[in-house]
Amino acid sequence: MEDEEKMQGNAGIKLFALNSNPELAQKIAAEMGVKLCDASVKHFSDGEIQININESVRGDDVFIIQSISDPVNENFMELMVMMDALRRSSAGSVNAVIPYYGYARSDRKARSREPITAKLIANFIQLAGADRVVALDLHAGQLQGFFNIPVDHLQAIFTQAQYFIDNKIDEDVVVVAPDHNGVKMARNLAQFLKAPIAIVDKRDANRLERPEEATVIGDVKGHKCIVFDDMIDTGGKMADAAEALKAAGATDIYACATHPIFSGNAVEELKDSPYKEVVVTDTITIPEEKQFANLKVLSIAPVFAKAISLIYNNQSVDSLFCRDF
What we know:
This protein is of the alpha/beta class. About 30% of the residues lie in helices and about 25% in strands. The protein has 2 domains: about 1-155 and about 300-320, Rossmann fold; about 155-300, Rossmann fold, CATH 3.40.50.
């Protein structure tokens, strides 16, 4: 009965998946009780993209699921071409569902003659015809202000906190920021887990030759630790944090992040680090060769499914941000 009501409430949604993360798109569709719409995305030998929409979208509310992840520029252009195709097909509204927003770290001018690429990406998305953006854990919340259209900024922290609670990892635990920039995020998770926080303090922005010499601000000796960040890219920062915590006397050490970028030698860094478990979400597809024994992937599909359903039915999304544990 519940599934039937779910399907009836979402019956008019048109959900499309591009090539960046088809597995997540299938999970979202299953959560919503709908099928992904029929479209083909082809790449010519010279790299040009061809998209064919094989069913009518005239007057419909359309949601496109596409992470701007590796290959970043290719996936971004797929999104642009798809939105143009939908606009030219008279779609009622075009909603870009972006689980991972690439270029998000380029959100300000840190030096002379530097672009603000995150703003440029926002301009392109609007120019291509998006009416709304649905994103998850933007690197900086201020990126919402780069858009002149509605942005629903979802959070993975509720899913992550629930995982640690369900597995009793919230007992006698300290939430650790891998650097000073991550203190706010660490504090948010610590609030849900009713835990103290600590900070890994290193003065050199580059990799430390001896990570164990980094200063840990806070009491971690004899405690479990969760190193919490929004993304894991090369893995260096996470690896340094783990070594510093181990040297400071921490017991079981966990890594937790929303976006598993895993570029360069990230997998080797994480496998060689003293992490008991590396917990990420499925915002980015992790190739089989980048998966390892202590990697745990949480699905964020229920969060996106509920958000899309609420947006489609013109209901408040407040319930996605109000939760007690």
